[in-house]
Amino acid sequence: DGGITQSPKYLFRKEGQNVTLSCEQNLNHDAMYWYRQDPGQGLRLIYYSQIVNDFQKGDIAEGYSVSREKKESFPLTVTSAQKNPTAFYLCATWGRVGTEAFFGQGTRLTVV
Amino acid sequence: GEDVEQSLFLSVREGDSSVINCTYTDSSSTYLYWYKQEPGAGLQLLTYIFSNMDMKQDQRLTVLLNKKDKHLSLRIADTQTGDSAIYFCAESTPGSSASKIIFGSGTRLSIRP
Q: Which of B88, B94, B98 sits opposite A42 (nearest CB)?
């Protein structure tokens, strides 16, 4: 069954720590995206990647980093520089324009 | 830059029709989407429309596009309790640089008995 998987579903971070959110897909899609969702603010684009070993900053990239070493994987690291990381993070893949974007089930990150 | 706007809340009575509205700014938008998000989950595509279409119907869902006013709407007929969710409008525009999907802030639909 093709799909996109995010893990973990819930993640707790202490102040000053880096944490990495996993996103894996087996849809053979080139494009992968990370969004942040806060209540009442919809989805904001953090980073996206159109091809392996290449990625671009979205609208709110500060305090985040990504890598794209494999087509299937696009992990997101929330660094200690991100001052307000508590949010719901969504990963998506997209085959080509006009087709469906597939979303993972999300990771809820909480700073404790 | 591109922008997609929606009202944040809509409340309808069970059995009535729901109409969720969206406006967008990019006149070159090619594809316009409606996504549904249930609590604690990712987004699922409900339907999409090409910019050269005025209307698309799929069972209880009707999408209307007014390209002149850059206005998109989603009508849900005979609204049921299972329709309670957040509905996102989105647009994408292919271009020479990387294509991306721009989402609105989402409309939370609640159903009254």
A: B88
Rg (CA), chain A: 13
Q: Which residues of A touch B99 (CB under 8 A)?
A: 31, 94, 97
DSSP-derived secondary structure letter, B83? G
User: Is residue A96 within 8 Å of residue A34, measured between CB atoms?
Assistant: no
Question: What is the C-alpha separation between B5 and B76, in angstroms, rounded?
Answer: 19
Assess B92–A contact: CB distance below 8 Å, yes or no: yes
Exposure string for B17-29, b = 16+ CB within 10 A, e = fewer:
ebebbbbbeeeeb
Contact between A42 and B31 using a beta-carbon 8 Å cutoff: no
Residues of chain B with confidence (pLDDT) below 70:
1-2, 29, 94-99
pLDDT digits (tens, 9 = 90+) for A22-61: 999 999 998 899 999 997 778 899 999 989 999 999 989 9
The pLDDT value given to residue B97: 42
| Whole-angstrom distance, CA of residue B94 vs CA of residue B84 | 32
Q: Give one DSSP letter per residue of B37-54, joined into a string.
A: E-TTS-EEEEEEEETT-S
Long-range contacts of A65-70 (CB under 8 A, 24+ apart): A66/A34, A68/A32
Task: Find the CB nearest B100 among A40, A48, A90.
Answer: A48
